[in-house]
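Students often ask what a 'structure token' actually looks like in practice. Rather than answer in the abstract, let us consider ATPase, a protein of 280 residues. Its sequence is given first.
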Amino acid sequence: MIVMTYANFKGGVGKTTNSVMTAYELAKKGYKTLVCDLDPQANATQLLRRTYGLQNNQKGLKIGSTMMVALSNENINEAIVKIMDNLYLLPSYSDFTEYPDFLELKYPAIEDNYKEKRIAYFKQQLDKVKNDYDFVIVDVPPTLSIYTDSAVYASNEVIIVLQTQQRSLDGAEAFFEYLQRTYDKYPSINFDILGVLAVLLKNNVGLDSQILDDAGKIFGYDLMFHMIIHHMERLKRYDRTGIADKDLSPSDFHDTKVHYTYLTLTDEILERLRQKGEIK
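Now compare that with the structural description of the same chain:
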């Protein structure tokens, strides 16, 4: 099972959209994929609930147990729901804001190594279903928090999402430094940075090029994904309606373009994983 976290310390850069769209294309390619929404704002959860509703002609996906309850019960399976063939969701909900308090009570500060025990808890629960999925895609809030720590601790790979604006570059650089500190701090942690994914702003092409060049110098040009995600208005509609399946509307050019873009990105992700020997 490959666990991939999409992140940046700057909000609004497209983490959720890109993580969910990658998960969607992995599922369409036949990989059994689980999306874990570790953001209490639950944006990935809402997008996939609407996707389920759109593709099944229903109002939305009924969710029983919340992830917070499932983690408390040490059984995340009770909260996982099926979105479509090969695509599953561990949904977030407003009660997930209680997760830090739950961990503090479970592992009080008087315990030895309590900080690592807290951030390792999610990985322990995720490991219980590791044989059930090929990929786990994790979405996190754009903050330094127990949510981000938990996701990184559980990950094999991290993808840094970079929108072509200075604040996003600053956030990406800060996140990169955070990853280095985290890796050095916990000997049992084992992740790598799969790449930096650039997301272009709509206008100001000159600034886009400058930010991309600066990112290549900071992170290394080999770490930059070749695929660059251009601004696409159709993605805004998906946030409202759910992901439209190109197979159900093959004549819609906009849907076809979106899926082609993310299929190309997904193929590049898979090729990078093959080169590292993580998949065949």
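One point worth highlighting: Strands lie at 2-7, 33-37, 81-84, 87-90, 135-139, 157-163, 192-199. Ask yourself how you might have guessed this from the sequence alone, and why that guess would often be unreliable.
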